[in-house]
Amino acid sequence: MKGTMGIMEDATSGQTFKSVTCTLIWSVLAASVGSGFQHGYNTGVLNAPQKVIESWMNSTLHINKSELTFVWSATTSIMCIGGIIGGALTSVLSNGIGRRLTLILNNLIAIVASLIMGGSKYADLPWMLILGRFIIGINAGLNAGVSPMYLSEISPMGLRGAIGSMYQLVITISILVAQIVSISAALGTATLWPILLFIIIIPAVYQMLALLISPESPKYLLEKNDSQKALSESVRLCGKEGPANLELVRKEIEVARSQPDVTMKDLLYVGKYRRPLIIMCLLMAAQQLSGINAVIYYSTEIFKTAKLSDENAQIATVGVGVVNVLTTIVSVFLVEMVGRKPLLMIGFGGMTIDLTLFLICLYMDQHQIMAYLAVVLVYVFIILFAIGAGSIPWIMGSELFTTAARPLGLSVAVPANWLFNFIVGQAFLPLQELMGPAVFVIFIVCQALATVYFFIKIPETKNRPIEEITAIFE
User: Fold this and answer.
1) Cα–Cα distance, 154 to 275 (Å, whole number)
2) Cβ atoms of 295 and 320 closer than 8 Å
3) At the top level of CATH, which class does the domain 1-258 belong to?
4) Given this model, what pLDDT does residue 92 score?
5) Is CATH 1.10.10.10 what the domain over 260-474 is classified as, yes or no?
6) pLDDT tens digits, residue range 435-446?
């Protein structure tokens, strides 16, 4: 893996890289495909086979419909509680044993979770499925924290944005894969659904083997004062530009060390830290309270509510994944062309209008054309989410905080995302049973409030130095 390929120019920095090494490509694929697939696939895999798995649960537990709804909601959403725990372990493990080894060992968690979840049917124990979902959540939390960090730190400085976007892109692709393989015409049947959960072992083994011959993060090695190993790994990744790239990383570390430490007390009471923290936490909360994961987790049921047949509802759900992938690719370019704040306004404002129209369609379901219009509106919703609320909160996380405050600030904001993800996943189906289509009013109100707040409070961060941005909060 010592070869090089082509000439690449980074669109944002204008810096030209004479070579992209095979080692870099290998390592980027190992981190993004291995981790991103686990995260995205496990988010969408239980959607289509919901009814057949619920039927199996009920045959064992013998509970009424409302109790079954609660158990199913817990099964899907408990992954987020595991995500909070995994996220909390990110800093400890990545700084303690390194980024690469953390990702390698994290795959053991995925394998254990897969065996427990897939084995639940053969043991006839529904609680094993819930336990496995919790464990795979820990895996997802670690992946979400460590994989983007590793990707950023092994990338040439001018390619960080492009390579960093790979993780989110793979998540959306793997959600689509999960939606395709889990329909009733494939593996989403009463006898085959455990295979959907055993599949997780494949990317876990792939990543373990691929990362065994991938380099460690040069930044991590510099932080551990292993300059010689950092240089050799940087050369493996960046070729002849390795020493120059490593020097830029060294300067980053020196700047960070020269700044005073930021404590939790500073984060809560000092204006230039507290205000971006509030914005970031609200961005993460608004992302989940937009209703996106209700659409991903339960899109098949949503389409059935719109009076589509079971088969057509599953096909429409696959369409959601296709639209999500295509729009995520486009959003990578839009965010640098249009800016962060305009896309947030278009996204949240557009979702408010879109979901209001969707609600009207659900109340006029006696007309078949309204059912098909509801499907179109869900697709538009996905597009609006992907260009705004989907990617920008993660981008702005590194742009609103100073270098010294960024790790602690994100350690608070990211668990907020998982927490609200859990709340939506746990509450949506019971509330839908209680309120009917009116449940979407909750998301509409949250989106409308978010649009107004972000319009007033969020600064544009595109092409602005961090000193200028933080000065706004002082």
Assistant:
1) 31
2) yes
3) mainly alpha
4) 84
5) no
6) 888 888 999 999
